[in-house]
Design brief:
The chain is of the alpha/beta class. It has one domain: Ribonuclease H-like superfamily/Ribonuclease H (Nucleotidyltransferase, domain 5), CATH 3.30.420.10. A 5-stranded mixed β-sheet has the order 3-2-1-4-5.
Amino acid sequence: MRILGIDPGLANTGWGVIDSIQHKSRPVSFGMITTAKEVDQSIRIYSIAEQVSKICKQYEVQYCSIEDIYFTKNISSAISVAKVIGAIIHALGSMNISVTMYSPLQIKSTITGYGNADKKQVQEMVKFHLGLNQIPRPDHSSDALAAAICFATYKSSLQRIKLK
């Protein structure tokens, strides 16, 4: 199965595409979508959704996994991230691509086995899970790959449960 992981943000949205076959994941491609602060917010959000759609078409994505919003102090940034997520869900829904959202805690627990893992630990485990020589850069793409691996792990576990 081909999975797109997304680490959403208004300024920087990380993305990563993986293939998951027989409980093994391999990287296909990853990167980051960047928008400029000077551009109107609605145009930035639309642009992100359009670029995600293009990535889905280019890599023939079947599923999408998005890291859900996490915020502690800055609610205004959380609202803009929520708008980005909504636009992506709408765009992918029109392409019949199902979207699953995971909290940062779920992703960290799945990737590292520890829900309070730090960014470096998650990056090292993404590198390990995908058999990469280096940690994927930029950081947002590594986070997106972690979201994709999380989806693959959950999906694989559900398939094993159904076989029993």
